[in-house]
Model the fold of this input.
Amino acid sequence: MTNTTTNAMTTSTTEVAPEGTTRTVAAYAAARPDAPLEKTTITRRAVGEHDIVIDIKFSGICHSDIHQVGEDWGSGIFPMVPGHEIAGVVRAVGPGVTRWQVGDRVGVGCFVDSCRECDNCRAGLQQYCTGQGGAVFTYNGVGHDGLPTYGGYSSELVVDEGYALRIPDNLPLDAAAPLLCAGITLYSPLAHWGAGPGRKVAIVGLGGLGHMGVKIAHAMGAEVTVLSQSLRKREDGLKLGADHYRATSDPATFTELAGTFDLIVNTVSADLDLSAYLGLLRTDGTLVQVGAPEKPVTVNAHALLTGRRSLAGSMIGGLPGTQEMLDFCGEHGITAEIELIRAEQINEAYRRVLAGDVRFRFVIDAATI
Ligand SMILES: [Zn+2]
Ligand SMILES: [Zn+2]
Done:
């Protein structure tokens, strides 16, 4: 491809690599399962006709990054460059790109491609793609070109223009990065099950996911309760927009709040007694799992049928839903609460995430990679 594709641009960063030329970029990778992340270089694919090159500015650390480096969910592809909460700026565009211009503020979330033809892809639910191989995850996946995907702990990303999202101008890129996974993971079920005025919503757990749930559900107009093991983060929860904050270690919580909620979103992946939580739902209420416990969950059927209650699951969101979430967050000025770190602090940040010592999301300054 030639620079005629970028002749409308005026900066010096608009150069597109010649067709067929791959890009060597800086990254932090785990060489093997559970290995510490170390600075290295990786090869990004050549810029295709509909690809954009993103100058990564910030990348969030999601708990699932740690799970995948540790092969907790099955064998991984190594070296592994994690990161699916990516915020940056378009550096260059392929010749066929129509959606983006150099300088646009963009985000990339948990997937970078899908079959585009199955019912779910056509419905904008690419995360549930049923085509061969399903959605192509941003890292620890295999692209349609047969090459492994590498995530956001890197200086640059090459991605199809249709799989990038617009980040509203009023949101700072560092605190917006976690919206691409944590934000949409909570927004999607809250929107789908109708959180809004007159609805009582409980968020279980006040971590990286839960704190986004509190902010978003509050902005949607719902009455929000945090259900947390202890009252340790109560002040934080109320500041983030919760109306109530209750400890699940206190048995009175389950008797006093029985039959209260229209919707409960469980962000905790530890084993909880889901039957007890189902008892907190009103008739026709729904308990949605967004965290994934390692072991199968057990539920007392009486907890479901005595109130026509539902137990459901939800995984991130599709492209239209993710853009809707970003626009919603732009309108309401919602971003994540973050602790910005340098790339060399990634391993320490992993240890702190595992210890629950983060309020509420670590974000890597990609300029330090
Ligand atoms: Zn994530
Ligand atoms: Zn599909």
